[in-house]
Amino acid sequence: MTPNRWLEWAREIQALAQTGSHYAENEYQHQRYQRLMEIAAEMVCEHSNLDYPSVLDAFVTPIGYTTPRIDVRGVIFQDNRLLLVRERMDGGWTLPGGWADVGEAPSFAAEREVWEEAGFRVKAYKVVGVYDANRVGRLELFHAYKIVFLCDLIEGFARPSLETTEVAFFGKNEVPEVLSGERTKIRHIHDAFTCLENPSCPTFFD
Q1: Which of 45, 62, 184, 191 sits between 20 and 30 A of 127, alpha carbons compared?
Q2: How far, in Å, CA of 95 to CA of 97, rounded?
Q3: In terms of domains, do 147 and 95 share one?
Q4: 52 shares its domain with 126
Q5: What confidence score (pLDDT) does residue 75 get?
Q6: Which distant-in-sequence residues (6+ apart) come within 8 Å of 140 by Cβ?
Q7: Ordered alpha helix ranges (H), the chain
């Protein structure tokens, strides 16, 4: 079995149950889809340290047709050094970013996250890549897509936040070994430096 295959199954069951419940024609159908949600939550709890009520609530709260969530990240260079922040949650380093909010343009969401997490005002001007991002964790049970934006640094100074403990710039050969889970992978950092070295490179995507 591939790592976390159980989570892929649980996500798919939850997605089918949510979509089915949205289109259900009677209470009997709603009850069947509700039971599928419960089974998906039980699968997650069986293989993790998450508590059942929280997982079930996360699974039953969304409504409508199920689609992946959107995670945005900002790539900012200063003197050929890449901006990273250290996550307070796990101590790993990541490109600044997070979930896009409803009503936001994706580029604005990335700009906002950089300001909130790192203290810099930036302007997104190019998409580095669009990636499949299967994320794991209490608030990350769902399938997600990751959009990484190349941004110009406008103003500001390094400032940690409620979510971050450090803000720093790193050269290509200075990137910390400990990254923050699925938030940022070495692949995303490699693609960022590729865009720096070759501004005409195409957008990366899965």
Answers
A1: 62
A2: 6
A3: yes
A4: no
A5: 98
A6: 182
A7: 5-23, 27-46, 52-60, 106-118, 186-197
pLDDT value of residue 181: 85
Asked if residue 171 and residue 78 are part of one domain, the reply reads: yes
Do the Cβ atoms of 127 and 150 come closer than 8 Å? yes
Rounded to whole angstroms, the Cα distance separating 110 from 124 reads: 8
Structure pTM? 0.76
Amino acid symbol at 204: F
Would you give the end-to-end CA distance of the chain in angstroms? 22
- The length of the chain in residues reads 206
98 lies in the same domain as 140: yes
Which H or E run contains 205?
A: strand 204-205
Q: Tell whether 112 and 26 lie within a shared domain.
A: no
Question: β-strand 164-170 against 93-94: which pairing, if any?
Answer: unpaired
Q: Answer yes or no: do 93 and 189 share one domain.
A: yes
- Rounded Cα distance between 135 and 140, Å, is 6
Parallel/antiparallel/unpaired status of strands 204-205 and 81-87: unpaired
Examine the domain organization and report whether 106 and 165 are in the same domain: yes
Tell me the per-residue pLDDT of 23-45, one tens digit each, with 9 for 90 and over.
889 998 989 999 999 999 999 99
The whole domain housing 32 covers: 5-60
Domain count, the chain: 2
- Detail the DSSP E strand segments found in 68-176: 69-78, 81-87, 93-94, 97-99, 120-134, 143-156, 164-170
88: closest CA among 160, 188, 168? 160
